[in-house]
Amino acid sequence: MKSVDLELPIVKGTTNENLLIGAATMRPDQKMGEGNYPLAGHHLKQKNLLFGPLENIKTGAQIVITDFKKDYIYSVTSKDIISEMDTDVIEETNKKEITLITCDKAVKTEGRLVVKGELVDSFGHTN
């Protein structure tokens, strides 16, 4: 995400190890470019690490992810704070969208920052 200077690997599953190195997939059945693609990441006190920069993302910003076969471009449609209990944001949908989730603060909190984006384009991977 160039607009907030964020580039992370996407890793499979929300283990502690994975959350310390990148953006972690939240469902075993999720596929890039299909339905809802939820990713979780830590929000640390050092604001430029992991998902910390998401607090500065704006509606309309681009999110680009890749499986190294295709690149998928999403446009941010919303940014909200929800309760950690609101797990429906990771459920599958018919819309081609991405959902990025992190704590709303860099300390223990019950709030979650949720950034949603809709798929606007996909094409063969480029370096």
From TrEMBL:
InterPro entries to which the protein is assigned, alphabetical: Sortase, Sortase_A, Sortase_dom-sf
GO molecular function: cysteine-type peptidase activity
Biological process, per Gene Ontology: proteolysis
Keywords: Hydrolase, Protease, Thiol protease
A Pfam short name: Sortase
Entry superkingdom: Bacteria
SUPFAM superfamilies: Sortase
Alphabetical list of Gene3D superfamilies matching this protein: Sortase
Active-site residues (renumbered): H42 (proton donor/acceptor), C103 (acyl-thioester intermediate)
NCBIfam families xrefs: sortase_fam (TIGR01076)
Protein name as annotated: Class A sortase
Native species: Bacillus subtilis
Species classification: Bacteria, Bacillati, Bacillota, Bacilli, Bacillales
